[in-house]
Amino acid sequence: MIQRAGRATWLFQQQPSVIGYASVVGKKETEGPLGEGFDRVIPDSYNGCDTYEEAEARMQRSALRLAAAKCNLEAKDIDCVFAGDLLNQCIGSSFGLKNLGIPYLGQYAACATMAQSLMTAAMMVESGAVKTAACVTSSHFCAAERQYRFPLEYGSVRTPTAQWTVTGAGGCVLQRASEPLRVAAATVGKITDLEMTDPNNMGAAMAPAAAETILRFFSDTGSAPDEYDRVFRRRFWLRLLRFGALFRNLQQPARRKVQKYPLCRHGSAAQHDLSPAEQNDPGDSPSRKLPRGVRASATPALCFLQRILQLFASCHFELAAGEFATANSRELPFGHCSE
């Protein structure tokens, strides 16, 4: 039975268990702190295929097969698979899983695809609609760069705020069982758009929605951060603080002829981003306009950020060395997260 708490938080009474899980990653992912924990590493970016998209589809298929094998299941034992990726029409999932013959529900939620898949699969298992459900998602750095920014062959220079999309795939299998890893609750996030327009700074665009969802989860469930062993969003807090600093910079008056706003259409504030009238403006005029691509939303954004920090301050959190520690000096461990 599913119990509703708040507007969009669901509590699972049976708490569907993750009975099997697996991951397939690229070479760069093994160089991080989680490098020893992955199940399989592909030999190169092509993964034995002709294109990056085919390589991603193959990774996703391998991740699902490995996850099922860990719990002694085959494709025919899975009632439904919830899968997605970052590509158009989710071709990484549809082409990767088409030969497995599993009823398929495509998912797309960008970086939240696995969370959405887990939530949807848990609902299906909890309700009894399916006995065994699988979730799988993937991304590929080379394919994502072509999809969202520029093909690598173009040779464009990466900006300091550009994230490095993970080359990897992860899969898991859910059932009603007594395994220790369970889905106990889920909160659906809202669209929180502060009109960030820089495609190379995805972290700043996602941070407000992530903060709103986490805070609403605590509110709906009546819990607090120090009740959890781990919160897997290590880089999020620093991005949130940088996000506030960015908007503070937007509010500062310019002192040079070329405006130095940190955010504009192409992630720079070069002279060509200003109209002729703006270029002739000495910069100290009160009528100074923002470069094209920058929205006049600095004040609401700062208020939103300040409210978030106030709420976390009420939970007795202190900022120290880029991470948060509880007031009783017991460090709260945060997991690693790559974009």
Helix and strand topology:
Blueprint: E1 2-5, E2 9-12, E3 17-25, E4 40-41, H1 52-70, E5 80-84, H2 91-97, E6 104-106, H3 113-127, E7 133-139, H4 141-148, E8 168-175, E9 185-187, H5 202-221, H6 236-251, H7 276-279, H8 298-314, E10 317-320, E11 323-326
Helix pairs in contact: 1-2, 5-6, 5-8, 6-8
Can you summarize this structure?
Helix content is 31%, strand content 16%.
Explained architecture:
This protein is 31% helix and 16% strand. α5 crosses α6. The chain starts with a strand and ends in a 13-residue tail after the last strand. The chain is α/β, with parallel strands linked by helices. It folds into 2 domains: 2-188, Stage V sporulation protein AD (Peroxisomal Thiolase, Chain A, domain 1), CATH 3.40.47; 191-339, no CATH class. It has a 6-stranded mixed beta sheet, sandwiched between helices. It has a 3-stranded antiparallel beta sheet with strand order 1-2-9, sandwiched between helices. The chain has helices spanning 52-70, 91-97, 113-127, 141-148, 202-221, 236-251, 276-279, 298-314, and strands at 2-5, 9-12, 17-25, 40-41, 80-84, 104-106, 133-139, 168-175, 185-187, 317-320, 323-326. The protein contains 8 helices and 11 strands.
